[in-house]
Amino acid sequence: MSDSALLAILAEDVPHGDLTTTGMGIGSRPARLTMTARQAMCLCGSEEAARLIELCGGHVLTCLASGERVSAQAEVLRAQGDAAGLHRAWKTVQTLMEYLSGMASCAADILHDLHEAGFDLPLACTRKNLPGTRTLAIKAVHAGGAIAHRLGLSETLLLFPEHRAFVDKADMPALLAQLHRQNPEKKLVAEVENLAEALWLAECGADVLQLERFSPEALQACHQALRAKGLAPLLAPAGGVTRSNALAYARAGADFLVSSAPYFAPPRDVKVHLVPA
């Protein structure tokens, strides 16, 4: 994130200075801040935390990188500065790191379960992050080993039922052929809600079928029906894919998983220790 974006985050918490620190007259005293993982996690947001501390006048001594797997009690960041600057940054950097590490850890946990069972499926995270936070959300899922399903509407072809409602069904094969000609470097993804739609859009030329709220059993039936017709689009379950069912989808024949689960994961706890230096 740019310095201006980080300062905007900070200004939400400290718009006019830290009243308590100023009132106590301790702002100029030298101080030391350490951040420690309270639980095992896939770390994320440490670089932003470090830069925020620097923008508040502090000096970062050590900082682990986003994407590192850390154990409980591991020190992830150490800084020094005056009490005013470190108190100003403290809560913002802690909260940011906790939320991003929660997202990264969720993605990493899903992928860990898949890899342990012998599956090498990508986990693609949707654009269903809290609006205004995409830069950080994408960084978090990348830190956890996942990929972005869509960075935005401008760089992917994803045909929803809401798009198809404006087109006569008989015109769909020609429309998909046109989309392929106009965007030869893009995969054409179509969201489908049942087996009949899956077979139809595969026959129309969809490269990827996004199976909306298919159960693992429905995905397996879809996989078999497509192969029986000689059709082989990639199959990606979406809507409700979580750690609890990711392995079932992999076993049912998914080519990759589409999930929003990391964005709603609980934050991971990070302890802050701020004392006189």
Tell me what the structure shows.
It is a single chain. With 277 residues, this protein is an alpha/beta fold. It has helices at residues 3-13, 19-24, 46-55, 83-116, 134-143, 161-164, 172-182, 195-204, 216-228, 246-252; strands at 30-37, 41-42, 59-63, 69-70, 75-82, 123-125, 147-148, 157-159, 188-192, 208-212, 234-238, 257-259, 270-276. A four-stranded antiparallel beta sheet has the order 3-5-1-13, covered by helices on one side. The chain has a four-stranded parallel beta sheet with strand order 8-9-10-11. It is elongated, with a radius of gyration of 23 Å. The two termini are 30 Å apart.
Short overview:
This protein has 277 residues and is an alpha/beta fold. Helices cover 42% and strands 21% of the residues. It has a four-stranded antiparallel β-sheet, covered by helices on one side. A four-stranded parallel β-sheet has the order 8-9-10-11.
